[in-house]
């Protein structure tokens, strides 16, 4: 099978598939970081989805992903839904190398934008920065905050962080 395509094409096909399912989702990771102004290359696409996927939603997700060029295992999705796995993955059959990591979360905030004629949901800026700090991606959090200036809600970030991570945020903001 011939492998071609690129990240942008895969991202748009993924968003099309997710929008078809009406499952609550948000792009996070490199895609969201890029959306907020810090370009970063990546070999994967990270997505958070609402954690309560029932059988009809799992079926719709498998059909939408496979119909848009992604290989995914229904069994792996079910294992993530039951808590046996932390995430599930899909693989882009057009590029032959791009991976989509799906993380189940009970709640998350998101905002929408139009990209390539599609409505795309991204993790909110504040949640993205909080996750970057929690996972130790302090340089990326610092870049995001620097680019944003004062246009963010510090209180929302603080609510998502433990005391150690709050101290990290304060250090980043003072630099």
CATH architecture of the largest domain: 2-Layer Sandwich
Query: Which spans have pLDDT < 50 for at least 5 consecutive residues?
Result: none
Terminal Cα separation, in Å? 51 Å
Question: How much strand?
Answer: 15-25%
Q: What's the tally of helices?
A: 8
CATH class of the largest domain: Alpha Beta
**How many individual domains?**
2
Strands of the widest sheet, in order across it, are 1-2-5-4-3
Question: What helical percentage do the residues reach?
Answer: 40-55%
The description of the largest β-sheet is: 5 strands, mixed
Helix and strand composition category: alpha+beta
What value does the average pLDDT take?
Answer: 93
Characterize the overall form.
globular
Number of E strands = 7
Summarize the helix and strand pattern as letters.
Answer: HEHEHEHEEEEHHHH
**Rg (C-alpha, Å):** 17 Å
- CATH fold annotation of the largest domain: Beta Polymerase, domain 2
Topology overview:
Elements: H1 7-21, E1 25-28, H2 29-35, E2 44-50, H3 55-67, E3 70-72, H4 74-81, E4 87-92, E5 99-105, E6 110-115, E7 118-123, H5 125-134, H6 138-148, H7 154-159, H8 163-174
Parallel strand pairs: 2-5
Antiparallel strand pairs: 1-2, 3-4, 4-5, 6-7
């Amino acid at each position: 099978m011939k492998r071609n395509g690129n990240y942008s094409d895969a991202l748009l096909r993924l968003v099309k598939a997710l929008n078809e399912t009406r499952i609550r989702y948000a792009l996070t990771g490199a895609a969201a970081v890029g959306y907020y102004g810090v370009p970063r290359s990546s070999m994967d696409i990270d997505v958070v989805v609402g954690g309560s996927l029932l059988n009809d939603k799992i079926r719709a997700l498998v059909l939408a992903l496979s119909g848009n060029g992604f290989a995914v295992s229904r069994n792996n999705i079910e294992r993530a839904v039951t808590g046996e796995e932390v995430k599930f993955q899909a693989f882009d059959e057009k590029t032959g190398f791009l991976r989509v990591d799906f993380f189940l979360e009970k709640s998350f905030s998101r905002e929408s934008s139009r990209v390539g004629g599609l409505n795309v949901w991204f993790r909110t800026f504040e949640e993205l920065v909080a996750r970057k700090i929690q996972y130790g991606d302090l340089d990326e959090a610092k870049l995001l905050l620097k680019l944003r200036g004062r246009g963010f809600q510090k209180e929302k970030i603080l609510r998502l962080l433990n005391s150690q991570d709050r101290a990290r945020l304060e250090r980043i903001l003072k630099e």
